[in-house]
Design goal:
Blueprint: E1 73-77, H1 80-84, E2 93-97, H2 103-116
Parallel strand pairs: 1-2
Length: about 130
């Protein structure tokens, strides 16, 4: 099993999603964040007691940003050539095979990744066991 080069503790400053203004009052207003733009909006004016806005300060640590829980970064590949480029980075990046790749080509890519010592995140996707 391939291990990451260095294990970094992943600390999220905020895991709770930022919700849209009045999404709790009306079903027609979705929860996904939209910037409040109203001329008299208390939220836009950032009054005390209103919901928080996403800001740059909520960003993750640069060292742990985009890290998977196992300590690797994810890299999506489409073909063998993409695999070959990651030989020297096998302890930094884990490979994810693109969803557009079919079952036959997937088997070839997983086999090649194993030879190169690369971790494949979705190795068992679209793989059927052979019936005897």
């Amino acid at each position: 099993m391939v291990r990451p080069a260095a294990k970094v503790n992943i600390v999220k400053k905020r895991t709770k999603p930022f919700t849209r203004v009045q999404s709790d009052r009306f079903n027609r207003v979705g929860e996904s964040w939209r910037r409040p733009r109203g001329i008299d909006s208390a939220t836009r004016r950032r009054f005390k007691g209103t919901r928080p806005h996403p800001k740059i300060g909520f960003g993750s640590n640069k060292k742990s940003r985009f890290l998977l829980p196992d300590g690797f970064r994810k890299y999506t590949i489409q073909n063998k050539k993409d695999l070959e480029g990651l030989v020297m980075l096998n302890r930094t990046y884990a490979v994810e095979i693109a969803h557009t790749i079919g079952a036959k080509k997937r088997v070839v890519l997983v086999e090649r990744a194993k030879q190169l010592g690369l971790k494949v995140v979705n190795a068992d996707a679209r793989v059927r066991s052979v019936e005897n």
